[in-house]
Design goal:
Shape: rod-shaped
Order of helices and strands: HHHHHHH
Number of strands: 0
Radius of gyration: 25 Å
C-alpha cells in the first residue's frame, strides 16, 4: 500500500517533535519498518527513483570494439575481462542489437 506525501510528512513530523517511533507506529497504524525507511530517505521526504543507482561498469563502445576484434570470444571471457557477470554482457549485447553467431565452418570436424 502506498502512502501519500502528507501522511508521510505527518508521521515524520511527529517523530521529529520528540514522539517515539513505537508511538508513531501505534498511533498511525503503520509498520515499524516503514517509519525507519522514511527516516533514511532524503530530508525532503521524496521517495527514491527506482532503477539502477550507479553507472555501468563497462563502456559499450569498448565492448563493441572488443567483440569486433575477437568475434569468437565466449561471453564468459568477455565478462571476466570486465569483472561483470555473463548475464550482464549478454544483456549489453542485446541492448546494442549485436548478434553473435557461431562460425559453423570452424566447428566442423575434418572429413
Amino acid at each position: 500500500m502506498a502512502y501519500g506525501k502528507d501522511f508521510r510528512r505527518l508521521v515524520l513530523d511527529f517523530v521529529a517533535k520528540g514522539g517515539s517511533k513505537t508511538e508513531a507506529v501505534r498511533r498511525f497504524g503503520i509498520a515499524r519498518s516503514r517509519v525507519y525507511v522514511w527516516l533514511k530517505q532524503s530530508p525532503d521526504h521524496k521517495p527514491g527513483k527506482p532503477g539502477p543507482k550507479g553507472s555501468r561498469k563497462y563502456d559499450q563502445e569498448a565492448l563493441r570494439a572488443e567483440v569486433k576484434a575477437k568475434p569468437d570470444a565466449l561471453l564468459r571471457e568477455l565478462a571476466a575481462s570486465r569483472g561483470v557477470s555473463i548475464n550482464s554482457i549478454f544483456l549489453a549485447l542485446k541492448r546494442m542489437k549485436t548478434v553473435r553467431k557461431k562460425n559453423s565452418a570452424l566447428r566442423r570436424k575434418p572429413a
